Amino acid sequence: MEDRHSVSDPRPVDDDGRDFPSWEVDILRDGVIVDTFILNKEVLPPRTNKKGKVVWKLPDSGDKLPSFGTDDRRRILDIHKERKKKRKQDKKKQNISPTKDRCQGGGKCDLGDQCSSPVKLGGGGNGVGNAVSEEEDERYSSGTNSVDTTGKGNVKENGKSASQNHGVRDDTRCNHNQQLDADDNQAQHEICPSKGSSLEPSKKQQTLLSATPPPPGLEIPPNMSSIRLDDAQEIPTPHQSLPSDDRPSTTSHASFIQLPPADALFITVPYSERLETAPGQPECSLAVPAARHFISTYYSHFDGTFPGARIIDLACYYTSEAQKSVSIGGAHSVVTGRTDIATQICNFVGTLFEVRGVVAQDTADRKGVHILVTGISRTSLSGSQGGVVASFAHSISLVPIDAGMLTQRGGITCTALLEALAVGYPFQIHNDALALLSGDAGPTSPISTPRPIHKPPPPPGLG
């Protein structure tokens, strides 16, 4: 396995009264300083060959910097490993001694006396001597951080006693480390409860249960023996049918539509336009006939071709909670409610809509209808016969009126609805979005062409 440790260049230090020079070196792991110590001829004696001849030694003068070869760097790393091993042993003794004294000082050592050693951070100052704990670096690099606390107060990590190393630069840093260890021991005594105030495990659990309120819906019974396993039989299995509910289905459009007011109007599809189906088969779709009746009813209110129709009456075809929007270029307007919808519709009085394409589809529950209408529109200018030509796209959502549900909710009070139910399937508009695309229809300037006397033929498939 490749060793990721390296040795820095030596730095001369004061002799401190010694007769030989000394240098200071750093041990780095992946570029991070993990240890710093002094090198002299006592720490790193001269290296000799098999015959006893000196082949390398430190300089005799502090003015010269030593150069380390491969063998000499290996010897320096061995010194670092020995220092690391010694620090682990010292740290282990410091961590175990206080816990052992508490457990053996008198009485029984229970769960309240167990306490793991607090975590210490690396040196917080600046300078070369601020070394990060190499053991922490190795643990984070390997992804291992599991700690097992035994009943005797011994802390183990991956089968080995856990410890934490701090790089020591000189004797002053060693004293600083001893001060940190003393602070850690004091913190252990403060965090861990004393033996006299410790509770038995069973009393601790009862105290915790009584002091901490349970989450909503998870009340803890006063006696755990009151829980019966046979209560699980009341839960329906996947093979059992759930209890029936007499409430109306929430998937129906009519379940969230308010009762139609007395002046409501409807787009009605006659019963005769729904094709008959074989027994056991779903009913035929009403999307196409509903789209055909919508086009013949809705757009004729704008140009006056529908006998006796007023444009303000179009608001009566919307549900009480309907929404309508209009987009012209970059301008958008969204309104809700029949009053605001009527105001928005009146802005298009006299507009001629020439339908070019229609797409109709059932809703997901096969009750309502989605319609998309495209074509060319020509707006009116202040009562004159001129106007602006623009392409349009009109998206509509029709919802059915469920007569059975309305009867359960208080009966039908709308005369137009009674007449519509007598001849067919009534629908109302619940969502309406109209977009005028002024740049797609060619001429955008006012034109003065006469209005057609007769309505254009319907698109293919809607005749």
Give a quick summary of the entry.
The chain is of the alpha+beta class and 463 residues long.
Key attributes of the depicted protein:
single chain; about 475 residues; alpha+beta; Nuclear Transport Factor 2, Chain: A; 2 domains; seven-stranded mixed β-sheet; four-stranded antiparallel β-sheet; NTF2-like_dom_sf
Structure explained in plain terms:
This protein is α+β, with helices and mostly antiparallel strands. The protein folds into 2 domains: 5-191, no CATH class; 253-275 and 284-437, Nuclear Transport Factor 2, Chain: A, CATH 3.10.450. It has 9 helices and 16 strands. It has helices spanning 70-104, 134-142, 171-191, 201-211, 287-298, 300-303, 338-346, 403-408, 415-423, and strands at residues 5-7, 11-13, 22-29, 32-39, 47-48, 54-56, 148-149, 155-157, 160-161, 267-270, 318-328, 331-336, 352-362, 369-378, 389-400, 424-437. The longest helix has 35 residues, at 70-104. Residues 107-131, 143-169, 190-199, 241-256 and 440-450 have low confidence and may be disordered. Residues 290-436 form the NTF2 domain. Residues 141-152, 195-210, 238-254 have a biased composition (Polar residues). Residues 82-91 have a biased composition (Basic residues). Residues 1-20, 48-224, 235-254, 441-463 are annotated as: Disordered.
Layout of SSEs?
Elements: E1 5-7, E2 11-13, E3 22-29, E4 32-39, E5 47-48, E6 54-56, H1 70-104, H2 134-142, E7 148-149, E8 155-157, E9 160-161, H3 171-191, H4 201-211, E10 267-270, H5 287-298, H6 300-303, E11 318-328, E12 331-336, H7 338-346, E13 352-362, E14 369-378, E15 389-400, H8 403-408, H9 415-423, E16 424-437
Parallel strand pairs: 11-16
Antiparallel strand pairs: 1-3, 2-3, 3-4, 5-6, 7-8, 8-9, 10-16, 11-12, 13-14, 14-15, 15-16
